[in-house]
Specification:
129 residues, mainly beta, Metal Binding Protein, Guanine Nucleotide Exchange Factor, Chain A, three-stranded antiparallel sheet, 9 strands, 11% helix, 31% strand, globular
Amino acid sequence: MNKPTDKLLKAQLTPFEYEVLVNKATEPPFSGTYTNNKTTGTYHCKACDAKLYQSHDKFDSRCGWPSFDQEIPGAVKRVPDADGRRVEIICASCNGHLGHVFEGEGFTEKNARHCVNSVSLRFVSNPLS
């Protein structure tokens, strides 16, 4: 999948979604649509619609953002964050900013927490899964 043009992103995203996905802003904690979502389905990138996460990999970390302990293989890239301390996660298809990944916290057996902005995601329900 190709990265959407800036013009297309500005047309399809709200100004705040654009700020998060393109300019790496962060939504306020506990404000996102998907923080407490427990419906079965798949989370897609809001910018390019690539599949990123499955609902069975989502868990309640009580951090204020949707948390996943695993991405769909090949869907997410890890890059050093500009702050030099954290690891940023971006969509592997379009490089849209998703959030950050933290390891070694012990929340799940996979020992990873992908802390993702809800506004970076689009959820597709699949109740038959």
